[in-house]
Fold this sequence. Notes:
mainly beta
Amino acid sequence: VLLRKIKRGRRAIVWNINGDAIYIDGPSLAVVWPCINRIQPLLMHQANDMQYLEVKYVDGTTDIKPGPVALYDDSLKIVSILTKDLITLDTNELLVLYTQQEKEEKIDLSSVRHIIKGPTLYAPKPNEWIHEFTWHGEDGTHKTHIIPGAK
Length: 151
């Protein structure tokens, strides 16, 4: 018999031999019987006020949690958690993004363009994507030849 301490503010899962899971929040002591059950500490993900968490769940849904926030990486419910920085827009900047909207029939999907004006901080929603602009410039030797990605 082993005793495992779960500290204050921490969380763990005790797995039984039959696959059942029991959550234990600290402060607590967990009794672990070798070969019968095992303990798995859960990793905590955090985002400050300039970040957000992108959470992908087992059921296929995605959720955005703006900071400040903390969330445990629970493998029974969550596939992945990513900490990302908020998009920072200054006064004269714009963000062009598209939102996928479902219509009555699941097959027919449409997208709507939105323009976000700065100054602001923005966390994209799961059904949004950002329009990436590629600027073009002219070739110095041929005025009619355009170079993609030129500055």
